[in-house]
Amino acid sequence: MKAGEVIAMKTTKDSSWEQRLRFRLEDFRATVVPILGVPWSLKIRSTEWTFDRESEAQVFAEIDAWMRSHPYLKAWVMDHSTGPEIICYVNSAGKERRVDPYVLELIAVILHSALKNREHRASRKKRVEIVSRGFDDKGRYEEVLVGAGMLSSDELGVGSLLAKFETAGVVFRTPQETK
Question: In the chain, at which end, N or C, are there fewer CB atoms within 10 A of the end residue's CB?
Fold first, then answer.
């Protein structure tokens, strides 16, 4: 799979995990002060190790501290065994999905914390994928691989991530910003 490639777009009956994702997104919409856009998921998925609050407590402590220092950010960080999921609002402008720039900063904090926490381990070089997923305005599930790389590489630096997100149709702009 290449970055920006649509992994899945379904119109069939939801599987149970799709139903759970739909529930989390709708719960976010009902709980967080609404802004322009629809709830969306940006999933940081580890493919080779358990990346949850229990096994990576220091990483999640840093994520929690960052979230407390940015109370205006309308996003949730969900804990899964394969890695954190950021639920935030996106709004569409043509083929772009616009996301608050602080979400990119949050992704960088997560990746940097995970790398720093794993530096003392022999298993430091682990693969991570970032996936953009949600439901379009017709309720169809859409999932796009934003990018993948080794946790310890420049492939997951902020500059590289920006390019990968843009290839996947996700840009980091406030709703008021234009190109």
Answer: C
Q: Which of 71, 72, 74, 64 is nearest to 32 (CA)?
A: 74
How far, in Å, CA of 55 to CA of 170, rounded? 30
**How many C-beta neighbours within 10 Å does residue 96 have?**
15
**What proportion of the chain, given as a percentage, has pLDDT over 70?**
79
d(CA 19, CA 25): 10
Residue tagged 């080794």 (tokens)? 150
- The pLDDT, as a whole number, for residue 140 is 84
Structure tokens at 124: 């430091």
pLDDT tens digits, one per residue of 160-172:
777 888 888 888 7
Q: What are 142's two structure tokens?
A: 């859409």
This prediction's pTM: 0.81
Average confidence (pLDDT) per 10 residues, the chain, 179 residues: 51 71 91 82 86 88 95 91 91 78 90 76 70 85 86 70 81 59
Contact 123, 66 (CB under 8 A): no
Q: Which helix (H) or strand (E) holds 107?
A: helix 101-118
Reported as type and span, the H/E element at residue 177 is none
Q: How far apart are CA 90 and CA 94, in angstroms?
A: 12
Tokens, residue 53:
């609050």
